[in-house]
Amino acid sequence: MAITILSNRNTLLGFAMAVLAAIGFSAKAILVKLAYYDQVDAVTLLALRMLFSAPVFLLVALSHARQKQPSPMLGKDYLAVFILGILGYYLSSLFDFIGLQYISAGLERLILFLYPTMVVLLSVFLLGKVFGRKEVMALLLSYGGIGLVFFDELHIQSENLLYGAGFVFASTLTYSLYLIGAGETINRIGATRFTAYAMLVASTATVLQFVCTHPPQALLVTMRVYQLSALMAIFSTVLPVFMLSWAIRLIGSAHTSMIGSIGPVATLFMATEVLGEELSLMQIGGAALVMSGVLSLTLKRPKAKSVA
User: Fold this and answer.
1) How confident is the model at residue 254 (pLDDT cuts 50, 70, 90)?
2) DSSP for 89-127?
3) What is the pTM of this model?
4) Which of 156, 162, 176, 259 lies 20 to 30 Å from 17 when distance is taken between CA atoms?
5) Measured between alpha carbons, how far is 292 from 294 in angstroms, rounded to an integer?
6) Which residues are CB-neighbours of 98 under 8 A, at least 6 positions away?
7) What residue spans define the domains of the chain?
């Protein structure tokens, strides 16, 4: 009885963590758009986000470094963390922040949500995996949905729309490459240690880019931008990253990824309420198609029971 209660409690906690992580990640686009009202550029805003979040990841990294690890990191692990940190947390974030200067938060989140379909395509071309009917249907639904939303936004903002969407697609592509390459390293050194180290790599790259391209006084922004950057670091970076790890541990990656599908919906409604972005029937229909396509990849068909 006690084991059942504990199991149910862990399941509820896992679902709660997955929901909060999805909403936290989705809120990032809203916070970025709000900060852009104060005329801050993408590189400066990303540097502030990393500067606010890096101390937490540094503490986690130092904690792991002091402990005796069951799987000590090898040279190839450090190289993998460096490459994956650049791909998944630096370039992906940079492209996303640039893209958000030109497109709506709702469209940005839908494009980012295409990453499972990109992982499938990259796995076919890079790893030679089989491409079946299920994958074709998922791609048709997902990219058809993006096409609907994109066409709808042409009537609202046509200037630089393709430019911004291109950067967000590049963000999705780099994140998909990160996902393909991260599995083996995460399994070897652990998710928390990997995330902390990879985020520190990304933070260092971001600050170096800022130093090379901006004068130091560019960090002297309005108090509102500091506040939004801190909120972004805490509620859309640090907490969601760890909540996602906890959710995967408690309820598994399949359930966690399915719950993550509330992210685009949350962004659409937050963008409408907070940013005043228009929410049309075509956008709702496009979002439904995108989520249907992505979920069709994550949902597993039940196995047929054998009859004795």
Assistant:
1) low
2) IIIHHHHHHHHTTTS-HHHHHHHHTTHHHHHHHHHHHHH
3) 0.85
4) 176
5) 6
6) 42, 164, 167
7) 2-298
